[in-house]
Amino acid sequence: MNSLPNQPTSGNYGIASLYCGDLDPDITEANLYDKFSQAGPVASIRVCRDVVTKRSLGYAYINFQHAIDAERALDTMNYELIKGRPMRLMWSQRDPSLRKSGVGNVFIKNLDKSIDNKSLYDTFSVFGNILSCKVATDERNTSKGYGFVHFETQESADQAIIKVNGMLLNDKKVFVGRFMTRKERMETLGHPATRFTNIYVKNFGEANLTDEEFEGLFEPFGKIVSCVIMKDDTGKSRGFGFVSYETHEAAKGAVENLNGNDLQNCKLYVARAQKKNERQAELREKYEKLKMERLNRYQQGVNLYVKNLDDVIDDTRLHEEFSVYGHITSAKVMSDDKGNTKGFGFVCFSSPDEATKAVTEMNGRIIVSKPLFVALAQRKEERRQHLAAQHAVRTQRIPTSC
Description:
Layout: E1 17-21, H1 29-36, E2 42-49, E3 56-64, H2 67-77, E4 81-82, E5 85-86, E6 88-91, H3 96-101, E7 105-109, H4 117-124, E8 130-137, E9 143-151, H5 154-164, E10 168-169, E11 172-173, E12 175-178, H6 182-189, E13 198-202, H7 211-218, E14 224-231, E15 237-245, H8 248-258, E16 262-263, E17 266-267, E18 269-272, H9 276-300, E19 303-307, H10 315-322, E20 328-335, E21 341-349, H11 352-362, E22 366-367, E23 370-371, E24 373-376, H12 380-397
Antiparallel strand pairs: 1-3, 1-6, 2-3, 4-5, 7-9, 7-12, 8-9, 10-11, 13-15, 13-18, 14-15, 16-17, 19-21, 19-24, 20-21, 22-23
């Protein structure tokens, strides 16, 4: 059996709690109760859900009344199918410091596509107690060819690295090494941004540059290995291209000196060339950051919705009218594709007190020629629920015909 990990017994059932991952989105607490009550008395179950959509995030926490029952479930039910998917069980680590420390964490790559979580677990469990084991997959649940195993002790991880690194698993030679955080990888290997030699150039379609003219733009900065303008089937420039230098210094000089320059009424964009997955990762990170910022504004009650704005009110005027109530982080009047105002906007304050004061003072006040409507901004889902509730109340009040 998997020995109990070193965890404090205080708090929410201490070492009687299991993490259950890789769940089908439709799995409910009732489904999990039916499954896990076979192992012993269950104290509580929580399926984690998105705060906005309330959809399952694909994982849950199972709290048993007794640690021995949790241990039995982990030993006998790990990777069992539930609604057609193998569930992944591990001890719930309430203290994130163990997960973030990197102690006992191993990275494996060049895995055969047929190796799943259970196969990886079976391969590495001989070296010690495993806290978690995961093969990375894409949105279609296909293996990406790498995974992670987190051992309870560093000694177990070291043994796994020594014994399995370079071995053949399903006829493929795998690499097994110590897991490194992104920061550690950057310090050890260097960030791509600090050692690039390839650059991406765009926004020169109107300039009608020849191949020679394009290369001539970049020659002053260093020796060029290759230089190409991307063209369509007719041979016409698509307005972007790539330049590869022999040294990083040359590429860096080209970016610093040419990015933003005007070229025959075209404003050049010159930057480090990125792989598709790197661009996607950056965009995802930027999107998630913006999403969290918006969510925090709604939850903290600092974002105001302002409507019935006069046509002459722009962002600057909106900021001026509300600035007397506190520090404004953003003020925006919404407009259509032609730049015409839509008659409403948003004002975001730095604190809930300032926002509350602005609502109290500004709601109903006439600015230019119209009385403003000012209220705390709501997410679309909350607004729909609120309108649906109002509609239901009004419907109940309507007398039925005889």
